[in-house]
Design goal:
The complex is a heterodimer of chains A (156) and B (590).
Chain A (H helix, E strand, L loop, with lengths): L2 E9 L4 H11 L6 E6 L5 E9 L3 H13 L3 E7 L4 E12 L2 H5 L7 E6 L4 E8 L1 H11 L4 E6 L3 E4 L1
Antiparallel strand pairs in A: 1-3, 1-4, 2-3, 5-7, 5-8, 5-9, 6-7
Chain B lengths: L2 H11 L4 E4 L6 H9 L4 E4 L3 H15 L8 E5 L3 H15 L4 E7 L15 H5 L5 E3 L4 H16 L5 E7 H5 L28 H13 L3 E5 L1 H5 L3 H11 L3 E3 L14 E4 L6 H9 L2 E5 L5 H4 L10 E6 L13 E4 L2 H10 L9 H24 L9 H11 L5 E4 L3 H9 L20 H11 L5 E6 H4 L6 H6 L5 E6 L4 H10 L14 H7 L4 E4 L2 H13 L4 E6 L24 H16 L1
Parallel strand pairs in B: 1-2, 1-3, 3-4, 4-6, 5-6, 7-8, 7-10, 8-9, 10-11, 11-12, 13-14, 14-15, 15-17, 16-17
Helix pairs in contact in B: 1-2, 1-6, 3-4, 3-17, 10-13, 11-14, 14-15, 15-16, 15-22
Classes of the chains: A alpha+beta (156), B alpha/beta (590).
Bound molecules: thiamine diphosphate and magnesium ion (MG).
The site of magnesium ion has 8 residues of chain B, from helix 18.
């Protein structure tokens, strides 16, 4: 199913996140990622939600019902081709240093800590697809622990 | 000044006089303060659910008067608040403005599972238009003003204010200021778009002028924006027939020549056939609920749809529109009425087609009404409603409960008074009628109010007879007793081979019940006694209860089965079908 990103701006009031997540549950979606941060304007939060849905009419319904919340100032879908979707991840992994080095020119990662000869903690940033490919290439079986931020998105 | 004083003075400023509710530990400070002031009339319901329906009745019935009042209820935390939920969810479904004030445990013990603590905001959030929990006394007054604004503007709905007990008692800070007159809510995200844009309106006018078989839909939004008379003028101006949603009933007279009556699951043949055959639907203030549309992929497949609706999230939700007008119905109608481009057409062929549909069940229904009794020899509900309509000339306020009797009241009363139909639609909450009728009567004391219940629903809130007794509320109570949960029985007859699981019930002696509350009581078992009993109820000063011995085998037809399309409409009684089959068999033997 097509992955969709919905960008919403809302008043930073208690319970708003609760409402948004209840709406998405009521509509029977599973949230893929959800990120909230403060926006440029004090008191207004910026939320990016990603979920999977092929039917555009259904996505429009979610957006309209989000906009119906008194606290939500605006909500819209971000066009995949006309926006940046970025994530960051922190990965603790057991990996051969040479193997890791060989990935350096293709992926944007940074060593945070080398715990011992085999175990290291790295930070990687990029599009969701890039991070997925990176994790595939280092080998998912080598990952000890991973923390991903979820999608932050912005129109071009 | 304390939080509780600020609360009550804000309610007073907002014109709230009636408070429906029930006290308890965490709301006691407010009750105590309320008693000291002489501005409120407190109506104690016998169950918190009763208070919510009384509040709904007040909100709905008063909105067409020159004193619209926001129905307000109050309850304590925990069980008190939880008992409100059904009526709140009901108000949310039916877009009824309502203010709910609940006491909450003190801030110091919140989230410790304190005595009678429940997460009221958490529970109410999905069934309210908005919820608030002021955490200091300074916030109470602005919160009430904002809550009132949100509940009563745009698409109405219930708004909760949950106030911890210590916040009620706290004093406002010395620097506290609130400018009542200058107050404007700051809600940048609140969608309230009452005036229509010109562009969709122009497109709508073109479609209307082009249409050969147009049909107007009159929804609850027409009543809510007091636009019944304007809709009638509009329909007359362009000569277009009107079908009603259940809550659109009474926006204009039922017997208006352009009226086709109610549409949907139990709608008239003419309304539903017209929907199927129309080339344009002009929908005012409605949400294309599944009880209206039936199977969506077959619904109005050949029609353009103009949808005038105050809530943008309803537009294109169930039915795709050709023209969306996001605005208040009344403003849209004003502009349409003034538009010189809109033209009148005789539409002879269209009306002839509709007149054919009007004939389908007409004679049969008329014969049933005149017969007055069904297969069991007991009274038919449709006859009682027909007689009520004649005795009251269709002018009274009707508050049905939920079930067959409700559909009979929707179909066979000839509504003449704008905004005279109340009850539960979207949620279909049994037990709403008796308490809602109390609120309706308080809003419109000079008009006659009839509560019509089935034996099932009546017993869900019959404790409110206590409220009627105590406050001497003049409500005429009609009990249609068929010994069954009739509407469910009807489904069992039609779709479950007549297996009556969980629908028969033993009833109490209602004479004794009425007597216990000091309410006069009449029982009617014969057709000839219906009219005299109704006339006696009219003449009675104060409440009266009339119980009718009704035929459990009566069905409300036509019926579009749940999930079915308009082609699946059932128009013949199941019993009759069987006897017709039997006759055939006999014939083939001989
Ligand atoms: C609170 C609630 N519970 C269950 C239902 C399901 N229901 C709808 S109509 C109905 C039967 C109503 O029976 P009664 O009040 O006797 O009215 P009648 O249909 O017999 O006129 C039931 C059980 C409901 N609508 N509301
Ligand atoms: Mg019954």
């Amino acid at each position: 199913m097509k992955r969709r990103a919905i960008l919403a701006f809302m008043l930073d009031r208690p319970g708003v996140l609760n409402k948004v997540s209840m709406l998405i549950r009521k509509k029977m979606y599973n949230v893929d990622t959800l990120t909230v941060c403060s926006s440029r304007v004090p008191g207004i939060s910026r939320m990016t939600i990603t979920l999977r849905e092929d039917d555009i009419a259904k996505v429009t319904q979610v957006i309209k019902q989000l906009e119906k919340f008194t606290e939500v100032i605006s909500a819209k879908e971000l066009d995949t081709n006309k926006s940046y979707w970025r994530e960051a991840a922190i990965v603790k992994l057991e990996i051969d240093s040479d193997h890791l080095k060989s990935l350096q020119d293709r992926f944007n990662f940074e060593m945070l800590e080398k715990k011992n000869r085999d175990i290291q903690i790295i930070q990687v940033a990029g599009s969701t697809a890039q991070i997925d490919t990176f994790l595939d290439e280092i080998g998912r079986e080598n990952i000890i622990e991973i923390a991903r931020t979820g999608v932050a998105a912005m129109e071009k | 000044m304390t939080g509780k004083e600020k609360l009550l003075s804000a309610l007073k400023t907002k014109g709230i006089k009636y408070i429906f509710g029930y006290t308890g530990g965490t709301i006691m400070p407010v009750f105590d303060e309320m008693d000291k002031m002489e501005d409120f009339e407190f109506i104690m319901s016998r169950h918190e659910q009763g208070a919510t329906f009384m509040a709904q009745g007040l909100s709905r019935a008063s909105l067409s008067t020159n004193n619209p009042q926001l129905g307000t209820c109050m309850a304590t935390s925990g069980p008190g608040a939880m008992n409100l939920t059904t009526g709140v969810a009901d108000a949310h479904m039916d877009s009824v403005p309502m203010l709910i004030i609940t006491g909450q445990v003190a801030t110091g013990v919140i989230a410790t599972d304190a005595f009678q603590e429940s997460d009221v905001v958490g529970v109410m959030m999905p069934i309210c238009k908005q919820t608030y929990m002021p955490l200091n006394a300074d916030d109470i007054e602005p919160t009430i003003h904002e809550a009132h604004y949100v509940a009563t503007t745009g698409r109405g709905g219930p708004v909760l204010v949950d106030i911890p007990k210590d916040v009620q008692n706290d004093s406002v800070s010395p620097k506290y200021r609130f400018n009542v007159k200058g107050y404007r809510p700051v809600l940048p995200g609140y969608l309230y778009h009452p005036a229509p844009d010109r562009e969709p309106l122009d497109r709508a006018i073109k479609l209307i002028n082009k249409s050969v078989r147009p049909l107007i839909f009159c929804g609850h939004g027409v009543i809510n924006s007091n636009a019944g008379a304007l809709l009638q003028q509009f329909a007359e101006k362009v000569n277009i027939p009107i079908a009603f949603t259940m809550h659109g009933i009474s926006a204009l007279p039922t017997d208006h020549p352009l009226s086709l009556g109610m549409m949907g699951m139990h709608g008239t043949v003419e309304a539903n056939k017209a929907v199927m055959e129309a080339d344009l639907l002009i929908a005012f203030g409605m949400r294309f609920d599944d009880r209206v549309t039936g199977k969506l992929n077959e619904y109005a497949a050949n029609a353009d749809v103009i949808h005038v609706e105050i809530d943008p999230s309803e537009i294109d939700k169930n039915v795709a529109t050709s023209v969306a007008v996001n605005a208040d119905v009344v403003n849209t109608l004003r502009l349409l009425l003034d538009d010189p481009l809109l033209t009148y057409k005789p539409r002879r062929r269209w009306f002839k087609q509709i007149d054919e549909h009007r004939k389908v069940m007409k004679d049969e229904l008329q014969a049933e009404i005149e017969e007055g009794v069904g297969d069991t020899g007991k009274l038919l509900m449709k006859t009682i409603v027909d007689k009520l309509s004649k005795v009251t000339k269709g002018k009274d306020l009707i508050v049905p409960d939920v079930g067959q009797h409700q559909m009979m009241a929707a179909r066979f009363y000839n509504y003449q008074t704008e905004n005279s139909w109340f009850g539960s639609g979207g949620a279909g909450t049994m037990g709403c009628s008796l308490p809602m009728a109390i609120g309706v009567k308080l809003a419109r004391p000079k008009e006659r109010v009839w509560s019509i219940s089935g034996d099932g629903g009546f017993q869900m809130n019959m404790q409110e007879l206590g409220t009627i007794m105590e406050h001497e509320i003049d409500v005429k109570i009609l009990l249609f007793n068929n010994g069954y949960l009739g509407m469910v029985r009807q489904w069992q007859t039609l779709f479950f081979d007549g297996r009556y699981s969980g629908t028969p019930m033993q009833n109490p002696d209602y004479d004794h019940i009425a007597q216990a509350y000091g309410i006069p009581y009449i029982k009617v078992e014969k057709v000839k006694d219906i009219e005299p009993a109704l006339k006696k109820a009219v003449a009675q000063k104060g409440a009266i209860m009339v119980e009718f011995d009704c035929d459990p085998s009566e069905v409300i037809l036509p019926m579009i089965p749940s999930g079915g399309g308009f082609d699946d409409m059932i128009v013949t009684r199941p019993g009759k079908e069987k006897s017709a089959l039997k006759k055939k068999k006999k014939g083939s033997k001989s």
